[in-house]
Each structure stands twice: as structure tokens, then as C-alpha cells.
């Protein structure tokens, strides 16, 4: 079984799925809404949505006959927390590099 973070990163590796997530930042949307900008079938979009849902990056609710999609911020927070560890490391390295460059200028 794949760990949850790996599922999220695999889901985010596809540009179509990233575009779907970007559209969901404006609020909930139906599959038809999400499929609109893409030149692909509804079943293909539905597969992308299923991958995002399985990864915990979106949720789906029931509203009569529709199942609108919503961004799952907790799923994205897990990815951000993981990336933040590397962001902190690179900032520290860049700070040390800046300090070193200033020292050799003098």
C-alpha cells in the first residue's frame, strides 16, 4: 500500500489534476464545470477527480443528482508541511551562502 503523502504527490504530478485543483480554489464545482476547459471526455475527467479524491486532495458531497467537488485543505496542508522542511533547509543554506559572500567581499 502506498503511503498518503505519496498518493498526494502522485496526484499532483499530473497537470490536468493541478488545473482541477486550481479551479477548485474558487469554490465547489461539478464535474461538468471542471471538465469545461479540457478537451477530454467526462469519464476521463471523472478518473482524474477519483485520483484526487483517493489522495485526499478533494472531497465530494451530494446535492440532489450532482456530486460537487471541494478542495480538501487538510490534504494540501500535509504536502505543504512536507515541503516546508525543505524550504527551511534551503533558506538556511542561502543565508549561509549570503554570509560567506559578504565575508569574502571584505
Explain this structure.
This protein is mainly alpha-helical. It has a single domain, classed as Winged helix-like DNA-binding domain superfamily/Winged helix DNA-binding domain (Arc Repressor Mutant, subunit A, Orthogonal Bundle), CATH 1.10.10.10. It contains 5 helices and 2 strands, in the order ααααββα. The chain has a two-stranded antiparallel ribbon with strand order 1-2. A hairpin with an 8-residue loop joins strand 1 and strand 2. 17% of the residues are buried.
Summarize the SSE layout with pairings.
Blueprint lengths: L3 H9 L2 H10 L6 H5 L6 H13 L3 E3 L8 E3 L1 H33 L1
Helix pairs in contact: 1-4
Instruction: State Rg.
Output: 19 Å
Question: What is the number of beta strands?
Answer: 2
The helix content, as a percent range, equals 55-70%
Number of helices: 5
Using the alpha-carbon principal axes, give the shape.
elongated
Let me know the largest β-sheet. Answer: 2 strands, antiparallel
The CATH superfamily is Winged helix-like DNA-binding domain superfamily/Winged helix DNA-binding domain
Query: Please, what is the average pLDDT?
Result: 92
Amino acid at each position: 500500500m502506498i503511503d498518503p503523502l505519496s498518493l498526494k504527490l502522485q496526484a499532483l504530478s499530473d497537470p490536468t489534476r493541478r488545473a482541477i485543483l486550481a479551479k477548485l480554489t474558487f469554490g465547489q464545482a461539478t464535474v461538468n464545470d471542471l471538465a469545461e476547459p479540457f478537451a477530454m471526455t467526462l469519464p476521463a475527467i471523472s478518473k482524474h477527480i477519483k485520483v484526487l479524491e483517493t489522495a485526499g486532495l478533494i472531497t465530494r458531497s451530494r446535492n440532489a443528482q450532482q456530486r460537487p467537488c471541494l478542495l480538501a485543505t487538510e490534504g494540501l496542508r500535509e504536502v505543504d508541511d512536507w515541503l516546508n522542511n525543505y524550504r527551511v533547509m534551503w533558506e538556511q543554506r542561502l543565508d549561509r551562502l549570503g554570509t560567506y559572500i559578504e565575508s569574502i567581499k571584505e
